[in-house]
Each structure stands twice: as structure tokens, then as C-alpha cells.
Specification:
about 160 residues, alpha/beta, five-stranded mixed beta sheet, about 25% helix, about 15% strand
């Protein structure tokens, strides 16, 4: 009798993989971020990626990082975390976990806290010294939202699409 296979991926690998795959939907030429919200029963409740709001044509809004503010993406793009929260149609997100490929900014941290998400697992923290991320961590600590960095395992996943 054969036993189960031993090389299956962990829950963290699975959900971070889903987040990263979701981020690949972003049309942002510089930063692609994906997010995945998971219930305590290991079921995916919602996903999101950074992009413009529904109805805002990607070809008519700017993707620039620098220039006059209204000629950049910043006033228009919705971050992956907020998209995942807003995309959820099931009601309550209390006690859930958010997997995200980049540590949340302070605006997303507010939404995460208000939505009742209790844990954040992030892949990168490249803006860790920015006021936005420092503020996020301060709010998470105050509100009791746990967060930890995903430990990359080096596993490769190949999809033949």
C-alpha cells in the first residue's frame, strides 16, 4: 500500500503562491502586488492585486511613478490588500489571515484592522523604514494584528499555461 506523497507544499507556500500569482494580474509596469484572504479553515475567501478601480480604463490613467501628482498612478491605484477586502462578498472577515507579497502601507493597514483581519503574512518588506510602513506596524501592534514575514523555501512551481 502506497503512502501519501511527501513533497506537497505547505499552507503558507500555497497561499503566498496564490498571492504572488494574483499579483501577476497587475498591469503596473513597476510594482505587482497580490493579496489573498484566508479563513481559519484554510479556504480562500478573496484575492486582489494592485490596479485601477472597476470602470477606470487602464489605458486612460497614468502608470508613472514620478511627475505631477495627477500624472502619476498614486491617486488612482487601489492596492491589492484593499482590493481583496472590497472584493469579498461573504460578509465578515473577522479572524482571517491576509497573505500579501509586499508589507501593507498605512492606508491598507487601517482597512485590514477595520475589516477584522487578525494576521498578515508578507513576502517582502522593502519599504520597512518608510513612515507609511512604520505607521502600519505601530497600528498593527496596537490593534493586536499579528504579522510575520513568509520564509521562502526556494521551491519552484512551474505552470504550463
Amino acid at each position: 500500500m502506497a503512502g501519501q506523497r511527501k513533497d506537497y507544499i505547505s499552507w503558507d507556500e500555497y497561499f503566498m503562491g496564490v498571492s504572488m500569482l494574483s499579483g501577476m494580474r497587475s498591469k503596473d509596469p513597476n510594482t505587482q502586488v497580490g493579496a489573498c484572504i484566508v479563513g481559519s479553515d484554510h479556504r480562500i475567501l478573496s484575492m486582489g492585486y494592485n490596479g485601477f478601480p472597476n470602470g477606470c480604463n487602464d489605458d486612460l490613467f497614468p502608470w508613472a511613478r514620478e511627475g505631477e501628482e495627477l500624472e502619476t498612478k498614486y491617486p488612482f491605484v487601489t492596492h491589492s490588500e484593499l482590493n481583496a477586502i472590497l472584493n469579498y462578498r461573504g460578509g465578515n472577515l473577522e479572524g482571517t489571515t491576509l497573505y500579501v507579497s509586499l508589507f501593507p502601507c498605512n492606508e491598507c493597514a487601517k482597512a485590514i484592522i477595520q475589516a477584522g483581519i487578525r494576521k498578515v503574512v508578507y513576502a517582502q518588506d522593502k519599504y520597512k523604514d518608510s513612515p507609511s510602513v512604520v505607521a502600519s506596524k505601530r497600528m498593527f501592534d496596537a490593534a493586536g494584528v499579528a504579522y510575520y514575514q513568509y520564509q521562502h523555501t526556494g521551491k519552484k512551481v512551474e505552470l504550463d499555461l
